[in-house]
Automatic annotation (TrEMBL):
Sequence similarity: Belongs to the cycloisomerase 2 family.
Organism: Hymenobacter sedentarius
Keywords: Carbohydrate metabolism, Glucose metabolism
Gene Ontology MF terms: 6-phosphogluconolactonase activity
GO biological process: one example: glucose metabolic process
Annotated region (Disordered), positions in chain: 152-175
Stated name of the protein: 6-phosphogluconolactonase
Cellular component, GO, one term: cytosol
Cited InterPro entries: Cycloisomerase_2, Haem_d1_sf, Lactonase_7-beta_prop, WD40/YVTN_repeat-like_dom_sf
PANTHER family noted in UniProt: 6-PHOSPHOGLUCONOLACTONASE, 6-PHOSPHOGLUCONOLACTONASE-RELATED
Length: 382
């Protein structure tokens, strides 16, 4: 991909990246470590000045805590157990941990079944009343109410996706992501197996998910949509497609809960030959740049977001200095990007140029067993 410089995205509702760059961050790392008796969630302190990661502690996070999320108050951390058996029953589980405000350590509060096999994604609605879970192997999505003390109540809504696609990995539904829209009116479930983004009416107060008659978006056959992320202005969204290694830019209709395709383009550089599957996708806090991870090519693809249209222009491909970048994250200021390389057991940090979006390695890395997910928050322990 050639170099280009993005223009500032007009209409962005969030402030431009900046913040207090002197304040450290905490990074919770979810892993693919299966044995429940071992430490499976790791806590690091991230220096914004150097990009260095310093291990603080190792936590008992249960089996395969491959995806995490925190509440807005940073009081509770929620983790999936990406398993097909949980407490002797078929399916996976979800755990709630209380966060120690002095140390950042985790204490298990409770667990619930995820109502499906191999949960791989969890998010909270914007009111903080419910958790939304995507179960990959079973192709189901579930809603679990959150109690005032942070504990998870049993699921009050579960939906089974149906269908398949032309790719060998699309022999059935595979729910891979579920998130609320900016207005908290809809929930969108991205299904790799059916090439669809399902849309639900979201009612957190009643603990309800109501499937709408038509999908919010249908990807190209065999694309294998994986993760969806909204632009800070709430008018655009971006979809990463695992199986055909593409990124799709979308316009969002908040009234209908549907998306219109603007553009689909490759996440890989021209001329690449070999196996690849895309994984994660994020928009910079200032709304000017999009980042996507490639597993196989082992890179982060960088795109500039056009200021007037929301379309994408490739600007850079950066080696992740490891194998199989499953997940990556930006710090809250948008000045650092961290990559979790699942199959080389390392997390690597990069500096983000605020004007061009380009990534530069900081030279800092941390050794972590099978890192899968990175939750970056401001350091509340100091």
């Amino acid at each position: 991909m050639g170099l280009a410089v993005a223009t500032l995205f007009a209409g962005c509702t969030r402030p431009a990246a900046g913040g207090n760059s002197a304040k450290d961050y905490l990074v919770y790392v979810g892993t693919n470590v299966a044995a429940e008796q071992e430490s499976t969630i790791f806590l690091y302190r991230l220096s914004p000045a150097t990009g260095a990661l310093t291990r603080i502690s190792a936590q008992r996070g249960g089996a395969n805590p491959t995806y995490l999320t925190m509440d807005a108050g940073r009081r509770f951390l929620y983790a999936v157990s990406e398993t097909q058996t949980f407490k002797g029953a078929k399916g996976g589980g979800v755990s709630t941990f209380a966060v120690d405000r002095r140390t950042g350590d985790l204490a298990l509060l409770n667990q619930q079944p995820s109502n499906g096999a191999s949960p791989c994604y969890i998010s909270l609605d914007h009111s903080g009343k419910v958790a939304l879970v995507a179960n990959y192997v079973s192709g189901t999505v579930s809603l679990l109410p959150l109690q005032p003390d942070g504990k998870l109540a049993p699921a009050t809504a579960t939906d089974q996706h149906e269908g398949s696609g032309p790719h060998k990995n699309q022999n059935g539904p595979h729910a891979h992501c579920i998130i609320p829209d900016p207005a908290n009116a809809f929930a969108f479930a991205v299904d790799l197996g059916t090439d669809k983004v399902y849309v639900y009416r979201l009612n957190p107060a009643q603990g309800q998910l109501a499937l709408m008659p038509e999908p919010a978006f249908v990807a190209r056959p065999g694309a294998g949509p994986r993760h969806l992320t909204f632009h800070p202005n709430g008018k655009l969204a971006y979809l990463i497609n695992e199986l055909n290694s593409t990124v799709t830019a979308l316009v969002y209709d908040p009234t209908a809960g549907k998306f219109r395709e603007l553009q689909t383009l490759s996440a890989l550089p021209a001329g690449f030959v070999g196996d690849n599957s895309c994984a994660d996708i994020h928009v910079s806090p200032n709304g000017r740049f999009l980042y996507a991870s490639n597993r196989g090519h082992n890179s982060i693809a960088v795109f500039a977001i056009d200021a007037s249209s929301g379309t994408l222009t490739p600007v850079q491909d950066v080696d992740t200095q490891g194998k199989t970048p499953r997940n990556f994250a930006l710090d809250p200021s948008g000045r650092l990007l961290l990559v979790a390389n699942q199959n080389s057991n390392n997390v690597v940090t990069y500096r983000i140029d605020q004007q061009t979006g380009l990534l530069t390695p900081t030279g800092q890395t941390a050794e972590v067993p099978s890192p899968m997910f990175l939750q970056v928050v401001e350091d509340f322990t100091r």
